[in-house]
Amino acid sequence: MSEQSRTAGGGSTPGGGPGAGRHPEASAAGGAAAGPQKDSADAGTAPAAAPGQDATPGRTPDPQDAADGPLPASEWEPAPGSGAPQPGWYADPAPAAGATPEPERKPDAAGPVRWKRWLLAGIPAVLILAAIAGIVFSLRGGTSSAQTTDSSPVSSSPGPDGVIAEDVSPFDFKAGDCFVDFEAVTRNATVVSCSTPHAAQIIGTFSYQPSDTFPGKDALNVKAEEVCSAVKLNQDAQKHKALRTTYGMPSEGTWQEGDRRIDCFVIADGGNKLTGSLIGK
């Protein structure tokens, strides 16, 4: 998935500054988390492309790009992306000598799994004992009318540190989620309560139909800007000068794997400086 960004106040992020991104053809974005991840790309300044050539190193021109036609003028500041860059986009820098490029992120064959860290402290002990009794009763061959009754959902309340879910796949991000130590839209992230200091928030999503054919990179960029620009931020967003918006979208390769999502993010440069949701009413 490729990605594009701008400053929330209309300012620009320097070409040498950190970029941001999400889905498999996106690249690295603000946040400071470390740890093993599947995909990322460091931001860099794209070299000038020769006529008819793709500006991203290591990629061949896509005939679909010419068919889609040029994009309209955009207020979004370009961010790193490995799709066909528009004029002024940052491109993925060439890998260092001897370095092994990271593989493209793809949805899991069995579908995305969102691992959550649930707290049991709020569950009354009597419910736990009742559950154990039910298991014992079942093992003894008994039957119970309670088996046909839906169980209560497990609480997803954040822990004392504000963490709701760890190692969450980008394919499982939900609109409104806030992320601590956010690193890139292509990487797994830790979801926290938005009242906990965090570095990024997903402010909107859009999904194409499973039966839709790949619309081309230019059409995806246009749709992403349409979707993300429609999301209004609240007044708290104006308090943060180093605030950028960015979106992630499918690449042609991940589209074939079932990726249909466009995600819109707000990212704070400099780490976990956000408190509270930035989504307007």
UniProtKB/TrEMBL annotation:
The chain crosses the membrane at residues 118-139. Keywords: Membrane, Transmembrane, Transmembrane helix. Residues 8-20 have a biased composition (Gly residues). Residues 1-109, 142-165 are annotated as: Disordered. Residues 168-264 form the Septum formation-related domain. Residues 26-35, 42-58, 87-101, 150-163 have a biased composition (Low complexity). It holds the Pfam family Septum_form. InterPro entries: Septum_form (IPR026004). This is Septum formation-related domain-containing protein. It comes from Arthrobacter mobilis.
